[in-house]
Design a protein that fits this description.
mainly alpha; two-stranded antiparallel ribbon; 2 strands; 72% helix; Neurochondrin
């Protein structure tokens, strides 16, 4: 007996097209609502019967438009014998069809249906209620279409979709898997807005997710591991009481995964979740658990991520690393956390753990250098290269004695990479500055603005410029000129927003320039960029000094300016007398305000002390202050007008009055030496200053404090 054959695919498609053509023809010829309704039923059946391409979808829309579906969605009446949802179901089917077209999904007529879509997805639906479940599916299709548009995420947040999605998930109502997926995508696109507007709903969802993650013992644990990073709130919300509970659950869930023998596909999502937490919350999320357990977990996490990085980057074929970039980037965040904990004074790690982690971090950073030497020059544009340079910079900022040969070999690449990214970033500098939150598996991990590799390299360069061989390489590669360009850029940004993060980078850059001033003085006299730097310092200090909240930066600028002034005193860089004198007046003010006399507790004697306005920052600026005192003293014989400026400032009187009022035992030898340097140089170069010092009891004080050089200078039989 002959069997009946299925129609060929082409024949099926032809039949469907013919059916749809007839439906559209009926729809165009409909004379009233009843006929149009009947025609629409035919169209929706045809739509459901096949995948509609963009051209056909647009033809359906042209035939139907928004007007009639709008009426269907809000109609309260239903034809006799029909389902109570028949009109809305038909309207939703058409809207779902339209929303697969990005242009239509972003139409205001779709946006104003969002609340209807919200109402639909929270409907009570039994498993076997096919008409209602079909409506809910159509509503999710519409919401997904809206979310994919440029204005869609904002519209969904504004129109209350997030609470509805949260309700569906928390009650595990029909479509909760779709609700979870939509929530995750919405948070990825507009996380800050979502948390700002719907915090209470998201708190409930994250609490549920974290508890489920902690308790799960099946494959759902790994699925939750992939989803959780999208639900982490902007820092520091998780430090609130509810968040600490979530962190404990997440920590325990991660600990159970990473301490088990699992396949690569099971372990990798755990690395990515840990990387997100490390980036946003440092070690706080680990400390949510006990300190002992936390230290063991951190050591385990850093060990595993370092091994993963080595396995990925030491492969001779770079394509293997290319396939694992997102994973390695998450490992980098965990490794940086390990670096921070190894170098902090108050850390949760024990000494043995630190030594072990430093060794394995060194091996992993060696693998990063191998990778960058292998492919870095060809992949300047690759975001993964940026992430690799960032992690390596963090390691170099703490460790420059290890892998010396490899570091020196890589320096030309690092400088050229930093230069390339800085130039490419120029186009972005006119845009509003935004600090990007680490998105899940984002390879732009931690960048402040596109191209800012130098920000991460600065601390490493501060160490490397103090060493001869790396310094020679850096100078040969043109690093000083690049650093000045960057310094100028940072200064411009700081001038626009003094609360910005540029201040720390400016301080670090000053440290690099100070290293060059001390170790390569001829370079300062020869390189044009230092002439421009000197001008910037001269003009900036007087204004900066007035802002007490920026005292550390002030100390850096003043000291660097004084150190450079010694070298450039005969050049045109100090040609504008008014500007130069204003700088030195500001420098005098900075130096003279550092110390005061105060009553010692339990004694009637006055002692010398750091002034109140300097006390909080003294740990950061004391070395700069002493260096500044030495540099100022060195400038006195080089600038003939400087002693007169000192006289007019009454600084000499201040020093001598201070020394005369306090107990000599309270003044340490380093401070005595600093004061002696200033007084001696003034007395040597200016008879008026010498006379003033003598009239203020300088000879007696120099003897009392053991200032032998000053005492000799002031001696009548041994003129200066």
């Amino acid at each position: 007996m002959a069997s009946s054959a299925e129609p060929a695919p082409d024949a099926q498609e032809s039949a469907r097209s013919l059916t749809l053509e007839r439906c559209l023809e009926v729809l165009r010829d409909a004379k009233n609502d009843s006929e149009q309704f009947a025609a629409l039923l035919l169209v929706t059946k045809a739509v459901r019967a096949s995948d509609v391409d963009a051209k056909t979808r647009r033809r359906i829309f042209n035939a139907v438009g928004f007007t009639f579906p709008n009426r269907l969605l809000v109609s309260q009446e239903t034809p006799a014998g029909c389902s109570e949802h028949i009109y809305r179901a038909l309207g939703l089917t058409l809207l779902a069809c339209f929303c697969t077209d990005p242009d239509l999904a972003g139409h205001p007529q779709v946006f104003n249906k969002i609340q209807i879509l919200n109402e639909t997805i929270v409907s009570d639906c039994e498993v076997n209620n096919l008409p209602l479940s079909s409506m809910i599916d159509d509503a999710y299709q519409c919401l997904n279409g809206v979310l994919a548009t440029s204005k869609g995420p904002t519209q969904l947040v504004r129109n209350g979709t997030l609470p509805c999605l949260s309700k569906v998930y928390l009650h595990h109502s029909y479509g909760w898997h779709q609700a979870m997926d939509l929530l995750a995508r919405l948070l990825t696109t507009a996380g800050d807005k979502c948390w700002k507007k719907c915090k209470s709903d998201l708190v409930k969802v994250l609490s549920r997710l974290s508890k489920d993650f902690q308790k799960a013992e099946d494959a759902s644990k790994f699925k939750l591991c992939e989803i959780l990073p999208r639900f982490l709130p902007p820092s520091p919300l998780l430090m609130e009481s509810w968040g600490v509970e979530c962190l404990k659950s997440i920590y325990q869930g991660l600990a159970s995964i990473l301490s088990s023998k699992l396949s690569e596909s099971q372990r990798n999502p755990a690395f990515q979740l840990a990387g997100c937490l490390a980036n946003d919350y440092n070690a706080d999320w680990i400390l949510a658990e006990s300190r002992v357990k936390g230290s063991k977990f951190l050591a385990l996490l850093v060990n595993l991520t370092c091994v993963e990085v080595r396995l990925s980057l030491e492969e001779p074929d770079p394509s293997y690393a290319d396939s694992r970039q997102e994973l390695i980037t998450a490992c980098y965040a965990a490794m940086e956390l390990g670096l921070q904990e190894c170098t902090r004074e108050e850390t949760l790690l024990m000494e043995a753990q630190k030594l072990q982690l430093i060794a394995i971090l060194q091996e992993a950073c060696g693998a990063i250098m191998y990778y960058l030497n292998q492919v870095g020059w060809q992949r300047m544009e690759d975001p993964f290269t940026f992430a690799s340079v960032r992690l390596l910079s963090a390691w170099l900022a703490e460790e420059t004695s290890a892998l010396k040969q490899e570091v020196c070999e890589l320096l030309p690449f690092l400088i050229q990479y930093a230069r390339t990214r800085f130039k490419l970033g120029a186009a972005c500098r006119d845009l509003p500055r935004q600090v990007a939150k680490l998105a899940l598996c984002s390879s732009t991990w931690g960048s402040l603005w596109p191209g800012d590799a130098l920000r991460f390299l600065l601390p490493a360069l501060c160490h490397l410029t103090a060493e001869e061989r790396p310094r020679r390489i850096l100078i040969a590669e043109g690093a000083p000129a690049l650093l000045f360009e960057y310094f100028q850029h940072l200064w411009d940004m700081f001038a626009l927003d003094e609360q910005s993060s540029e201040e720390v980078s400016l301080q670090t850059a000053c440290g690099i320039f100070l290293n060059l001033v001390v170790t390569a003085p001829d370079l300062i006299r020869q390189e044009l960029c230092f002439s421009s730097l000197m001008t910037l310092l001269l003009t900036s200090l007087p204004t900066l000094l007035q802002k007490k909240e920026h005292l550390v930066l002030t100390a850096n600028v003043a000291t660097l300016g004084l150190m450079m002034a010694r070298l450039l005193s005969n050049s045109q860089d100090l040609g504008d007398a008014a500007v130069v004198k204003a700088f030195f007046r500001a420098a005098i003010l900075f130096l003279r305000q550092a110390h005061v006399s105060e009553m010692n507790r339990g004694s009637e004697k006055l002692t010398i002390a750091v002034s109140g306005s300097y006390k909080a920052a003294w740990g950061d600026i004391s070395e700069l202050w002493f260096l500044g005192m030495q540099a100022f003293a060195s400038c006195v014989p080089l600038l003939t007008w400087l002693p007169q400026e000192v006289l007019e400032s009454r600084w000499i009187q201040d020093i001598l009055e201070l020394l005369g009022s306090v107990s000599p035992a309270s003044v340490d030898l380093e401070l005595v030496s600093a004061f002696q340097g200033i007084l001696k140089e003034q007395a040597e170069k200016s008879p008026a200053c010498k006379e003033l010092i003598l009239s203020q009891g300088g000879a007696e004080k120099s003897n009392l404090y053991g200032m032998a050089a000053l005492e000799q200078c002031l001696s009548e039989d041994k003129p200066c």
